[in-house]
Amino acid sequence: MPGLFIDVKVADAVAKDPELAKKLEEVCPVSIFRANDSGVEIVEENLDECVLCDLCIQAAPDGQVQVVKLYES
Amino acid sequence: MSILITKDTRFLIQGITGREAVNLTRENLDYGAQIVGGVTPGRAGRDVYGVPVYDCVSDVVAAHGKVQGSIVSVPPAFVKDALFEAIENGIEIVVVVTENVPRKDVAQAVELARLRGARIIGPNCLGIISPDEAKMGGVGGPAANTRQAYKKGNIGIMSRSGGMTTEIASTLTAAGLGQSTCVSIGGDAIVGTTYAELMPLFEADAETEAIAIYSEPGGRMEAELAEWVKANDSRLPIVAFMAGRFMDEMKGMRFGHAGTIVEGKEDTTSEKIARMEAAGISVAERIEEIPDLIRKRLNRKGEN
Amino acid sequence: MRFYEYESKALFARHRLPLGKGGVARSREEAASVAREIGGPVVLKSQVLSGGRMKAGAVKFADGPDECPALFDQILPIEVNGQKARSVLVEEKSPVAQEYFVSVTWDGRRKLPVLLFSDMGGIDIEEVAEKHPEHVSKTHFSSILPITPRIAKEAIAATGVSGGHLNKLTPIVFELMKIFLEYDLTLAEVNPLARLEDGRFIVLDGHVDMEAEARGRHKALLAELGVGEDETRQAREPTAFEIAGRKVNEVDHRGVAGNVVEFDGNLGLVIGAGGGSLTLFDAVRKHGGKPANYCEIGGNPSVTKACELTKLILSKPGVEKIAVMMNVVSNTRVDIVARGVVKGCLESGKDPKDVIAIFRIPGSWEDEGFKILEKYGVEYCDRSISMYEAAGKAVAKMGGATS
């Protein structure tokens, strides 16, 4: 089930980077990212728990991770 | 002036690497606090927002010299030991934010604090704030929110509820009444410092002209305050807000804070209101009545 | 957390406080067999978490085992102050020469344990203190410095007790002081402590309260006494709704969404925090509203927790709308709670704008929270609307209610 309030997008260019996947999993306080063999996976049921801390955005190269507030659209 | 803390108060945070404590550190630093170090056993050498972490309080004191205060944010089972450690290392004021601390542990730490000349605020509290001066604890939340709700002025606040400390301050601020010092004293049956124990400090503070308090059922703290006010002929008008009036009909049920339970007649809101009114304390039925009641009391005083 | 009398006595027995012969009966047959073992006259006492048993007729006397089954049947169904009996304690009944009162509790003002002793036990201690103050002593003692029997001795002697009685009472009272501290009790009371005509001193009735927060430290004792982990021992048994509320709070460790207490109204309350909830509950009632529940959210709960709490309250029969209200929040986030309650409404198959009567949570992250509420068309207000006014708005939407 996707988030009702929050969506997180990881650009294809970095989604397969195992280093970044590990980093994203580590920095997210609400476990939205999971690192697996093929890169990073979004844990959908945790999306709405996002606290907008921006730590994932800071951890990734500029613009490669986006946090979208669905209630703003 | 302010009571308990000033902008020069140097303090540390025990349990600094915990989730809540990390937040507290950020919020207090942003409000201008002088946090010299933090303690989490086994985590020495790290830092939290630039605040160095040590294993022991004694290490903080050895590295940074005299430290006046500490915020204790450790799990309930470790609170007593953390308090003993702070007090035995010369800390003078300790704010305990942790909830669910057994009262024996609190009482024991209070006894030690008495022997050593230290003061405990809490547990189960959000700490102390003197607007524009300093804050120590989670009161008001993030610095920007804190500055919105709290403005410097002449009203002291004492509250058994952390959240209601900010609600009252925000209401006073909106009415143009700033605050001198606001103390969230904690919601447990035994707290380090009661209303009556803070009164002499407010009484001696030239900046404080009136007091607002939040109170609720359970315990004898309001009776103690009423007695103090009468016995000491206090110069300060006090306005109290009493919550939990519905609990008078529900003896033995625990609502709200750990200390909020009606066990006997003296714990009821009606009894407390009667005692406070008899001591000249005005009791508001709604929060929004507090500013007018304070103004009335201050004007009356001015005429005398 | 209150102990039943038989549990209090089991605790006392561990510490060799003198007790009369007796045993717990869970059936009418057992009542007779316990009485048979005792031999002679007995007293049957309902095991219920309340005082006032005698007045309620839940204490009966028998000359021997034959009368016991019938008396058991009489006593067991009696509710005392709304509390059901768990079992019946059958004890020897011996002629009493004198009754004493001993109690240890915390003095929240002095922040010390306090020992109350009277040589006029068995009756209301407040009344004794008023009419015969010289027969009641009040003695504070340290919770960190070593305590010795002289404290008990002085407290007893202060009421005029002397001679052999003083020497026999001292170790009993001192032991009760130690029990109080050792088990994190908030009350350790023996009333009456009896001097029998045959010269023995025994505990006739005991009342022990253990601090709920300290339960974790005394697991072995509680297991030995048979106190279940989910027993709250509040003034009344938790309802199914309240138990479900506790489960919601256990969903994860983030924040609090609990302390749910059931009432029978139509307005569900999603309110917080400790002091704010008390304030808001009063305000709703003052406006003539009928709360369906009390609850507390605080400490920044997860979206899931706020959502589950909302669903639970909306699922309660008779709930027409919910009011989501708190004091100005510091660490709880407005946007997180807004997400949780909106989600809870949607997952309950309800439209948030119809079912949320008012949302009044100002403070941390309010701009973000208000955006969410606007998107779903929920009526909200900021700190310029007081808690009292917000409660009034909610009640006004319920229709039929007066304000």
What's the structural blueprint in terms of helices and strands?
The complex is a heterotrimer of chains A (73), B (304) and C (403).
Chain A: E1 6-10, H1 12-15, H2 18-27, E2 33-36, E3 39-42, H3 55-59, E4 65-69
Antiparallel strand pairs in A: 1-4, 2-3
Chain B: E1 10-14, H1 19-30, E2 34-39, E3 47-48, E4 51-54, H2 57-64, E5 69-72, H3 79-88, E6 93-96, H4 103-116, E7 119-121, E8 127-130, E9 134-136, H5 143-149, E10 152-159, H6 162-174, E11 179-184, H7 195-204, E12 210-215, H8 221-232, E13 238-242, H9 269-278, E14 282-284, H10 290-303
Parallel strand pairs in B: 1-2, 1-5, 2-4, 5-6, 6-7, 10-11, 10-12, 12-13, 13-14
Antiparallel strand pairs in B: 3-4, 8-9, 8-11
Chain C: H1 5-14, E1 22-25, H2 28-38, E2 42-47, E3 59-62, H3 68-75, E4 87-92, E5 96-107, E6 112-118, H4 125-131, E7 136-140, H5 150-157, H6 163-182, E8 185-196, E9 201-203, E10 206-210, H7 219-225, H8 240-249, E11 256-262, E12 267-272, H9 274-286, E13 293-298, H10 303-315, E14 321-326, H11 334-347, H12 352-355, E15 356-360, H13 366-375, H14 387-396
Parallel strand pairs in C: 12-14, 14-15
Antiparallel strand pairs in C: 1-4, 2-3, 2-4, 5-6, 5-8, 6-7, 8-9, 8-10, 11-13
Describe the overall structure:
- The complex is a heterotrimer of chains A (73), B (304) and C (403).
- With 73 residues, chain A is an alpha+beta fold.
- Helix content of chain A is 26%, strand content 25%.
- In chain A, 29% of the residues are buried.
- With 304 residues, chain B is α/β, with parallel strands linked by helices.
- Chain B has one domain: Succinyl-CoA synthetase domains (Rossmann fold).
- Chain B is 36% helix and 21% strand.
- Chain B has 10 helices and 14 strands.
- In chain B, helix 7 packs parallel to helix 8 and helix 8 packs parallel to helix 9.
- The model of chain B has no long low-confidence stretch (mean pLDDT 94).
- Chain C has 14 helices and 15 strands.
- In chain C, the strands form 4 sheets. In chain C, strands 5, 6, 7, 8, 9 and 10 form a 6-stranded antiparallel β-sheet that branches. A 4-stranded antiparallel β-sheet of chain C has the order 1-4-2-3, with helices on one face.
- In chain C, helix 8 packs antiparallel against helix 10 and helix 11 packs parallel to helix 13.
- The longest helix of chain C is centred in the middle third of the chain and has 20 residues.
- Chains in contact: A-C, B-C.
- At the B-C interface, helix 4, helix 5 and helix 6 of B face helix 9, strand 13 and helix 14 of C.
